[in-house]
Automatic annotation (TrEMBL):
Region (Disordered): 1-34
Protein's recorded name: Uncharacterized protein
Basic and acidic residues compositional bias, start-end: 1-11
């Protein structure tokens, strides 16, 4: 269990960072498109 928790933590953090970067890129693309 502790191992899975450790694996989930970094993945969750990475997913969060990815979501932020995606939101930024989408916002930039939307602004450029419009």
């Amino acid at each position: 269990d502790p191992l899975s928790a450790r694996r989930e933590r970094p993945q969750y953090r990475h997913a969060r960072a990815n979501a932020r970067s995606v939101a930024r890129t989408s916002a930039r693309a939307g602004g450029a498109a419009v």
